[in-house]
Design goal:
The complex is a heterodimer. Chain A is low in regular secondary structure. Helix content of chain A is about 10%, strand content about 5%. Chain A has one helix and one strand; from the N terminus they run αβ. Chain A has one helix at about 20-25, and one strand at about 35. Chain A is flat. In chain B, helix 7 runs parallel beside helix 8 (about 235-245). By secondary structure, chain B is an alpha/beta fold. Chain B has helices spanning about 10-35, 55-65, 85-95, 110-120, 150-160, 175-190, 210-220, 235-245, 270-285, 315-325; strands spanning about 40-45, 70-75, 100-105, 125-130, 140-145, 165-170, 200-205, 225-230, 250-255, 265-270, 290-295, 300-305, 335. The chains are: A little secondary structure, B alpha/beta. Chains A and B meet through strand 1 of A and helix 6 and strand 7 of B.
Chain lengths: ~40, ~325
């Protein structure tokens, strides 16, 4: 999965538990979101 | 036959003493039982209880536990995230006799709830959010929260089946992980229907700022979005503004369908009544309360508003199939 800047943020086939820190610290908008967190 | 003999004074005294003892014991048992079941709980809200949003969702949960025998609920709304909340907590403890407190707003945790927890170590404090950490925070405190991104994913499916412009919009308060998860979940749900759909997001910078929320909603619609959702404390302004512009809406926190019955597709709601009931029943039973509690749709922490009339049949089927898939997933709630 890529963020909306074109960077890969989650490798294909990778999965996380709902409370995984990788998800709980999410700071990127996925590809297709128009906007910025800055 | 001896039972038929007249009772003498000694026997009478013995019997009455035994009866009195039994009555006393029974009374004590009943009293202790009542005392164990009697529980006063305090709920503190940062906004009004009827905000169609974050605070209403918690107040609806408080209303559920009010119905539990032995439970007394005390509530205070519009309490700012300042020393005022400490005064409210002290009042609930000292004047109302509350022994379990739910300060529900994010900013109540540090330093306010932590200060009160240190001052009142026999009182239990549970805070909505994910801030409690083992080894760092007191044992008489804790956190509870839910995987509401699951609900935003389902919102996205309904939105993906309803949008004509293939542009959907999100009014967001602050760029923190919980909000970002919801934005991403909403779009990923929509893209499971059509991978060309895009979602524009506008951050207002505040949890509750009606004017900016209305401006953001209008701006998203002006740029082509025809389905809007949000993550702000009270979605009322977003829902009413979007519906007034003939756009569709997905709700958040609570059920906003009465505000826009024809335009409301569905909504990701909290189901705090289940979470609070579990805490209260454990407290009444004298059991240890968990310090860290999490759950999602399957665990009854999150629920969906009923689908509105504008969701097409294909959207209903896709929504219900994914909802069922989540409800039968192997994962379960976390409590420790």
């Amino acid at each position: 999965m890529k963020d909306n800047k074109g960077n890969e943020v989650i490798a294909g086939g990778k999965s996380f538990a709902e409370d995984a820190i990788e998800l709980e610290s999410m700071d990127y908008l996925v590809e297709g979101v128009v906007g910025s967190t800055a | 036959m001896t039972d038929l003999l007249p009772m003498n004074r000694r026997k009478f005294l013995t019997a009455t003493a035994a009866g009195a003892f039994a009555a006393t014991v029974t009374g004590l048992t009943a009293s202790r039982s009542l005392a164990q079941n009697a529980l006063t709980i305090g709920f503190i809200y940062v906004g009004p209880k009827d905000d169609y949003g974050y605070n209403q969702a918690h107040a609806e949960g408080a209303a559920v536990v009010k119905a539990i025998p032995g439970v007394t609920v005390v509530e205070e709304e519009n309490v700012p995230e300042t020393v005022d909340v400490q005064k409210t907590m002290e009042s609930m403890i000292n004047l109302d006799g509350a022994t379990l407190l739910f300060p529900t707003s994010f900013g109540y945790f540090d330093p306010h709830m932590l200060a009160m927890a240190a001052k009142y170590p026999d009182i239990q404090f549970r805070h909505c959010g994910g801030l409690w950490q083992e080894g760092k925070h007191p044992k008489n405190t804790g956190s509870y929260f839910g995987y509401i991104g699951q609900g935003q994913y389902l919102n996205g499916i309904a939105a993906g089946h309803t949008t004509k412009s293939k542009k959907i919009g999100f009014v967001a308060a602050k760029p923190i992980p919980q909000v970002i998860q919801n934005i991403n979940s909403f779009l990923l749900g929509a893209r499971s229907v059509d991978p060309t759909i895009t979602c524009q997001v506008i951050f207002t910078g505040e949890w509750s700022l009606a004017v900016k929320e209305a401006e953001a909603t209008n701006a998203l619609i002006d740029q082509g979005a025809d389905v809007i959702t949000c993550h702000v404390d009270s979605p009322k302004v977003v829902v009413e503004t979007a519906a007034g512009r003939n756009a569709f809406v997905c709700g958040y926190h609570a059920n906003q369908s009465p505000l826009a019955p024809e335009k409301y597709l569905t909504g990701a709601e909290w189901a705090w009544g289940n979470v609070y009931t579990d805490f209260v029943k454990k407290a009444q039973a004298g059991e240890k309360l968990a310090n860290f509690v999490r759950g999602g749709l399957k665990d009854g922490f999150v629920k969906m508003s009923p689908l509105g009339p504008a969701v097409p049949e294909a959207g209903r089927k896709a929504f219900e199939a994914t909802h069922a898939e989540i409800m039968t997933a192997s994962r379960s709630s976390r409590a420790r």
